[in-house]
Amino acid sequence: MQTPVHIFWFRRDLRFDDNYGLFRALSAGLPVVPVFIFDKEILDYLEDRDDRRLTFIHDTLTQLQGQLATRGSSLDIRYGKPLEVFAQLLSEYPVRAVFANHDYEPYAAARDGAVNALLLQQGASLITFKDQVIFEKDEVVKNDGLPYGVYTPYSKKWKLQLQPAHYQSFDSLGLMDNFYRQPERPVPALEAMGFTRHPDAFPGNVLNEAVVKLYHQQRDFPALPGTTQLGVHLRFGTVSIRRLVAQALQLNETFLGELIWREFFMQLLWHYPRLVHECHKREYEAIRWRNDEKEFEAWCEGRTGYPIVDAGMRELNATGFMHNRVRMVVASFLIKHLLIDWRLGEGYFARKLLDFDLSANNCNWQWVAGCGCDAAPYFRIFNPASQAKKFDGQDQYIKRWVPEYKTRDYVLPIVDHEFARKRCLAAYKEALQMKMTPQSANKLFAD
């Protein structure tokens, strides 16, 4: 009879070091088979065959595989639908339990429920742990037990509850001899899954302390290297949030605040999974969007005639990254200058951003649109020219991405700012003053 094993299922935690779920699995007394699934349910939605994120994941798994090979073990990497893959794994290994870290997105919750049901049928179970956040679910809520809808009181309570035990590290790396011994397995080729490798390199996962110390002074200026570039590593868990919080407490309170924003948005989506498709403030569903296809295409390609908007979109298309300040400007322009539904912009960012995270992307777009939790007032409309003057006064960022700026080759503005501002205010005002029939209200406000 084969020796019983535990499985550790890697998802948004692609590291051996300070991985709490992995630490618990390796401490549980049975050999641990490390598993990763290239989820066909997710990959089928990717439009770009050379999606940068898939290359990042593939490279990371290859590195992890190399570390395991030196210890006589191997990742078991599969391609398929999770339920089908686990049916295969259960037929190949005598599995007592599957360990993993919590994932809070609606798809992940449904997937994990289905996998656990399958495991229970076979006398096993899915055991999950908190790893990608400091506080989760109902751990930071109002005194009445309801979730916070405003960031500032949430962040105050988050900080009030924080204790050193919340960001202590776990030596999962020191337990690697407890992995199941087996010959090295090949990492599935991208081509076998219908994809190709993207040639670009990725930012490293080491926190630049010099950048963080000046974060509060430089983070809004896109021409400066003033941000950490760690978004992709947080997204896929190649860095530990506990380590980052410990460093942020020592280095910069503003940077710590950004890590708290991440958790605020993540728990909002957990509490309100409908936000994936709906406005948090449902009255904003009544806005009559223009959704002009040619204007949306011009925005996507960086051809609006507004230099900071075009620079941001070209940076995104070329690198998979866009500076945070510029993200707000380009999102505001799409929604409020062009009156294009925020969901279209959110979807484009989801396709292109290397650091795409559903909760942050969705909630930030709703913030700009005015329809989300803790949202900017609908009448706050960024003036792209003012934003460029304030945060890129020497046009360094703009000229980097829009070399034809201030030449005859640069396109004319797609819309006049003052005209667009008035049109937006009128559209929002009309929606918010609309008197609905009981039938339309029931449809609009139903869960």
UniProtKB/TrEMBL annotation:
Ordered alphabetically, the record's keywords are: Chromophore, FAD, Flavoprotein, Lyase
Q: How is the cofactor bound?
A: Binds 1 FAD per subunit.
Question: What cofactor does this one take?
Answer: FAD; (6R)-5,10-methylene-5,6,7,8-tetrahydrofolate
**Residues where FAD binds:** 215, 255, 258-265, 355-357
List, in alphabetical order, the Gene Ontology terms for molecular function in this entry: deoxyribodipyrimidine photo-lyase activity; DNA binding; FAD binding
Q: Give the Photolyase/cryptochrome alpha/beta domain ranges.
A: 4-134
The organism's place on the tree of life at top rank: Bacteria
Q: Which InterPro entries match?
A: Crypto/Photolyase_FAD-like_sf, Crypto/Photolyase_N_sf, Cryptochr/Photolyase_FAD-bd, Cryptochrome/DNA_photolyase_1, DNA_photolyase_1_CS_C, DNA_photolyase_N, Rossmann-like_a/b/a_fold
SUPFAM superfamilies per UniProt = Cryptochrome/photolyase FAD-binding domain, Cryptochrome/photolyase, N-terminal domain
One GO biological process this protein is involved in is: response to stress
Electron transfer via tryptophanyl radical, annotated site positions: 289, 342, 365
Keyword presence, Flavoprotein:
yes
Family matches, as PROSITE patterns = DNA_PHOTOLYASES_1_1, DNA_PHOTOLYASES_1_2, PHR_CRY_ALPHA_BETA
Record flagged with keyword tRNA processing: no
Regarding protein family, the annotation reads: Belongs to the DNA photolyase family.
Q: What is this protein called?
A: Deoxyribodipyrimidine photo-lyase
